[in-house]
Write a structure and sequence with these properties.
Number of domains: 2
Shape: elongated
Radius of gyration: 22 Å
Helix content: 55-70%
Structural class: mainly alpha
Number of strands: 3
Length: 220
């Protein structure tokens, strides 16, 4: 969770500091900080939107995790559940885990970790593509490498939820879908596809800096 919240801040801030068109250090930091704050505010709004969707779906479905019987050891009417009968009410008898952990064991669908990891990785990769990538710059090698790291992080977090037996594959699939929908909403609607600096027709809330997708002829 900490990585999902802090990674975009570092990625955006460092990128803006490197590519800022200001010649004065103080102005460069101010400009980079303003842009970072504006984008991270939009990112945070999308994250909350993502979180609400996931938690509401978890509360409605109440789907057990693969480790549910081990963590909870449910019992009804003095006998343990065998996994084949529908039981509307049960009592967790395993004393090795906390009440919260046992309650969480039957809220598997969808995977929140997958949704957040996909949201974070795709958001940062999309930002780097729009703000740092240029066919006529040396970033043509660095940006794809960073994007690969970000997307690998998303894939690893998603698949590890299955291999660690924390989720079923369909939990992860739906969680990834929610993450993609949320990143599309955040980038295209809230961040205007990271193109708020490309012309004079920009949001009044957006920072007034040049886009990195410039034509080198403009600088000569």
């Amino acid at each position: 969770m900490v990585t999902v919240l802090l990674a975009p801040v570092f990625v955006i801030l460092i990128t803006e500091l490197i590519f800022s068109d200001s010649a004065h250090p103080r102005s460069r930091f101010y400009q980079a900080g303003k842009t970072t704050g504006w984008l991270c505010r939009s990112y945070g709004y999308g994250f909350v939107f993502n979180l609400v969707i996931v938690e509401v779906m978890k509360g409605i479905t109440g789907s057990p995790r693969p480790t549910f019987f081990y963590i909870c050891e449910p019992r009804i009417n003095g006998r343990f559940c065998n996994g084949t009968d529908f039981v509307p009410n049960f009592e967790c008898t395993n004393k090795q885990f906390s009440t919260w952990y046992q309650t969480d064991s039957y809220h598997s669908f969808p995977s929140g970790h997958t949704s957040f990891a996909v949201y974070c990785g795709f958001f940062c990769a999309w930002y780097l593509q729009k703000r740092a990538f240029n066919w006529r710059s040396r970033t043509i090698f660095l940006v794809p490498l960073l994007q690969m790291v970000l997307l690998t992080y998303s894939a690893y977090c998603s698949l590890s939820r299955i291999t660690d037996h924390r989720h079923h594959w369909w939990d992860v699939a739906v969680g990834a879908f929610i993450g993609i929908i949320c990143v599309l909403y955040t980038v295209l609607v809230l961040c205007k596809n990271f193109a708020f600096n490309k012309s004079n027709d920009i949001s009044s809330e957006g920072p007034q800096t040049k886009t990195l997708l410039y034509d080198r002829s403009e600088l000569t």
